[in-house]
C-alpha cells in the first residue's frame, strides 16, 4: 500500500540534485518518481529532468518523465506577465489563474476532473453548523479555494456518500449549504480528519460574484 509523506521544504531546499535523490532513495524508501519534462529540482533549480533520470538510475529508482499537456484555451497573453516561462502548457499557474477568476469549468478542463477542496476537520470547534449549513475558516483548507462567490452544483464527499450542496466563499470563510435539512449532521458526528468538496459538473457549474 503506498504511503503519503509530508516533508518540510526547509529541510530539503538547500540539497543538491544528487543529495535530493539520495534522500528519496535511502531515507524515504521511494521506489520511483514521476515528473514533467520541464521539472527542475535541487538548490537553485540546478537539476533538470535529464539529471533526474540519470540520478534515479544511479540510486536504483524508476523515473518517468511526462511530456507537457498543452492548453487549448488561448489565454497565454494574460499569463505571460505572471510566468515568463509560459508556453501554453497546462500548469499550476494556469489552474491558480482560473481559480482566481472563479472559472470552474476551465479549472476542470485543466485538471481533467472537477476541482476538489480538502477541508481539515481536526479543529471542529472553529466550525459553525446549522441544520443545512456548515461553515469553516479558510485557514482549515489544505488547497486553494476559488474566488469569492456562490458556486452551485457542488457536493460533499463523506466515505462513499455524496451530499449535493452549494458553496459560498467569502473573504474569511467557506460555507457549505446542502439542499436537505440535517444533511450535515453526519459530518459533525463522525470522527473525520478531512472533508472533500467537489466543485460540480463542468457543464452545469456556475458562479455568482458576491
Automatic annotation (TrEMBL):
Its EC number is 2.7.7.2. It comes from the Eukaryota. It is an enzyme of class 2 (transferase). One of its GO terms (biological process) is FAD biosynthetic process. Residues 12-73 form the FAD synthetase domain. InterPro entries: FAD_synthase, Rossmann-like_a/b/a_fold. This is FAD synthase. It comes from Solanum tuberosum (Potato). The gene is LOC102585096.
